[in-house]
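Blinded run. Sample ID left blank on purpose so nobody reads anything into the name before looking at the predicted structure. Input follows.
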Amino acid sequence: MANETVQIPSLLLNSPYGGRVWGNVTFPLGFLPFGLVGESTGDANGGADWAGFQSNITVSTVENQTVWGPGSNVRCSEPFSVSLSPIGNPSLGITLLGAGNLSDQHEPTVLFPGYVNTIYFLNGFEAANSENVSTCGGPTQSVPLVTSTSLTLWAHFVSDGHNSTAAFTVPIVDSQYHYWFPANFGTWQVDNLSAPGGPGGGWAFSYTPCS
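Blinded prediction complete.
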């Protein structure tokens, strides 16, 4: 139905304002060609970036069929199915947001703003859903291991003359994130994107200075 070659983000990182983030993602063995089993990148001071790979993406229509005889009664949960055929060509440390952002609230939802994009994602700050991180009157803080086992993306395409969207998950074993916050610097609200029901992708932040 739809077939295109695109860049697929596999690791989306937000760095806290004034601080740093390091991240890495591990793929299932054999998923990417040329023996590539992982990628890593980092960012600092309110910047956001991504790592990923090039892939053919195919969006197909799925529908229920009625057949005679015994069998499972499992209905299609979505009208479209998305499949990936990775080519390789890894990308590392590509900027989504430059440094100096107090909040990830207005982070782009596409890899290439201003151009036609097929792949969309949610990696910005929407609302705090975890405990704040504060270093006001205190030392540096290091959060050495935030993990995620999924990353949800959306493919946008035209079906029967209408714009349509299909969600899919990137096949990953897991992603790991390490965040560092400077001493006596401020408070960061945390939107844990990897919480149950979230799109994956570690943490997003909104910063307030010490009063």
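Unblinding after everyone has recorded impressions. The first strand starts at residue 2 and ends at 14.
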